[in-house]
């Protein structure tokens, strides 16, 4: 029997890949296992993969229609979608834009002071998911 998939929508991916994990990916895998999920899919708010948020801020076009289509496809096929992009979701207003575009229920591990879904790395391992939506953003 196939276990369900959880998708994490994050920002600023590291150099982790399908062969090498990093601390954030290991934390996401741990959450997924604890919640009873069998696989994860990690997607990025932006097309541009930049470990430094300044590179996203300064880029003239860090996102495309293909990115939006891919995010929607992943969100529709995952059984659970966790928004987890952290405070830098304000870049190009992308967090708000994605939250409004996705036609699925979103969840978060916690929220930043401005209401953005917290990044998973520094969340306690026993953190419980909470429902999250764009209306929770302070600057929407």
Short characterization:
The protein is an alpha/beta fold.
Plain-language structure description:
With 140 residues, the protein is an alpha/beta fold. The chain has one domain. It has 4 helices and 5 strands, in the order βαβααβαββ. The chain has helices spanning 23-34, 53-58, 65-77, 94-101; strands spanning 5-10, 39-44, 80-83, 106-108, 130-132. The strands form 2 sheets. Strands 2-1-3 form a 3-stranded parallel sheet, with helices on both faces. A two-stranded antiparallel sheet has the order 4-5. The longest helix has 13 residues, at 65-77. The radius of gyration is 14 Å and the shape is globular.
Name some characteristics of this structure.
28% helix, 140 residues, globular, DUF1643 domain-containing protein, 4 helices, DUF1643, 16% strand, two-stranded antiparallel ribbon, three-stranded parallel sheet, alpha/beta, 5 strands
Mind sketching the topology for me?
Elements: E1 5-10, H1 23-34, E2 39-44, H2 53-58, H3 65-77, E3 80-83, H4 94-101, E4 106-108, E5 130-132
Parallel strand pairs: 1-2, 1-3
Antiparallel strand pairs: 4-5
- Strand composition percent: 15-25%
Summed up, the domain count is 1
Could you say which structural class the secondary elements and strand pairing correspond to?
A: alpha/beta
Task: Give the neighbour order of strands across the main sheet.
Answer: 2-1-3
Helix content: 25-40%
Rounded Rg:
14 Å
The outline comes out as globular
Give start-end ranges of low-pLDDT stretches.
none
Largest sheet: 3 strands, parallel
Counting DSSP E segments of at least 2 residues, the number of strands comes to 5
Count of separate DSSP helical elements: 4
Q: In angstroms, what separates the terminal alpha carbons?
A: 41 Å
Protein name: DUF1643 domain-containing protein
Organism: Haloarcula terrestris
